[in-house]
Amino acid sequence: MAAGGVSAADMSTLQSNDRSRLGEMFVPALLGALDAGRRAAESDGELEPAAQRLRALYRADAAGFAEVHARLSAWGEGRYDAASGVETFYHQPDDQDRADAVATMIFNAWLPRFIGGVFDDERIPGWRFSTSRTQVRALRDFLAGRGAENPGQLASWYAPTGESIFFDRLGTEAVETADEIMLAALGEALAFLRGEPGGAGEGGFGSPDMTTWLWGLRHYVKFESLLGGFLGADSGFDAILAMFNITPRQVPLTEERLDRTDPRAGLAGFPRPGDNWGVDGANPGLSGTRFSYGSGPVMRMVIALKAGAVQGVNIIPGGQSALTDSPHFADQTRLWLGNQTIPLRFSLDQVLAGAEGRAVFRRAR
């Protein structure tokens, strides 16, 4: 972009980017594994042992795998938007959003199981690939290093398979390949998603119909009192702390009352787009079973600096006041959820223009 061509509005738009960076990184490899599995499944002839195992994995859920391939392929064409897909007062999804939401849900259920399939069998004291970020980085490099043309690029290179030996599952007689681990992880993910819910917003969807697997029904943000972190989960003050939480009870998800059978009813938080390590932080972690926010932006601030003038916008998840009966206790929540902002009042004139009142403090006599 040309010098001077970036506005505060452009930067606010950038802050709302919810593309799945991990989806961009790993979906092509999964699609390749699905292609390899389909080719093996379509063959009735003699195959190498690894291809035989791949054929068995694919045939175990051929229809499900084919649908996943179609959905993830379309997701990639749609820029890997990690859409919520859930209708709320701050988001009205279209068909593309809902399709992207299903792909996002499938991917985020699959990736942790793929990571576990590669690393969980490595029982090495002081294991250097023990953190999620390190595991993801290593896995990216392992996948990029596959192929007979890449020997020597990986310290873990194993010539018979043409890829990292880390893809082998310790404790089995066979030497597994990356494609096998990816398809096995996908089978586990689909079984989880078809399984029964563990409560509102938790567990599977209780249905084989993938159109019901909307990311926002499992990926939601909760606004909980900061006091909870100091007092601890078992402090005995839960009822008091709950008074300071902002939930869909205080800020309903829709204008109309939700029926009990509505999957949005009873959610502990607010459905949102985004996933791990994206621009608009919405990090659910990599447990593969719980997908609510672990962290996210505490403000979305943009400041434009010009000679003699400072302009900007900002928003915070809750409100300026910690008093639950104040109109400013949760008044910014609605805007934050919809990636909207309010003016940042910097100069005295700006502050006075937006003032609601004035307090005068006098020295005691």
Give an overview in words:
- This protein is mainly α and 365 residues long.
- 36% of the residues lie in helices and 7% in strands.
- The protein contains 11 helices and 9 strands.
- The longest helix is centred in the N-terminal third of the chain and has 25 residues, at 95-119.
Roughly how many Å apart are the termini?
A: 61 Å
Order of helices and strands: HHHHHHEEHEEEHHEEEHEH
Total helix count? 11
How does the helix and strand content classify structurally? mainly alpha
**Parts with pLDDT < 50 across at least 5 consecutive residues:** none
- Write out the strand line-up for the largest beta sheet, numbering strands in chain order: 7-8-9
| Overall pLDDT metric | 91
Main sheet overview: 3 strands, antiparallel
Strand content: 5-15%
Helix content: 25-40%
Count of extended strands: 9
- Specify the overall morphology: elongated
| Rg from Cα | 25 Å
Topology overview:
Elements: H1 8-15, H2 21-41, H3 49-59, H4 62-77, H5 95-119, H6 132-144, E1 157-158, E2 163-164, H7 178-194, E3 197-199, E4 202-203, E5 220-221, H8 227-231, H9 238-242, E6 270-271, E7 302-306, E8 309-314, H10 333-337, E9 342-343, H11 348-354
Antiparallel strand pairs: 1-2, 3-4, 5-6, 7-8, 8-9
Helix pairs in contact: 2-3, 2-4, 2-7, 3-7, 4-5, 5-7
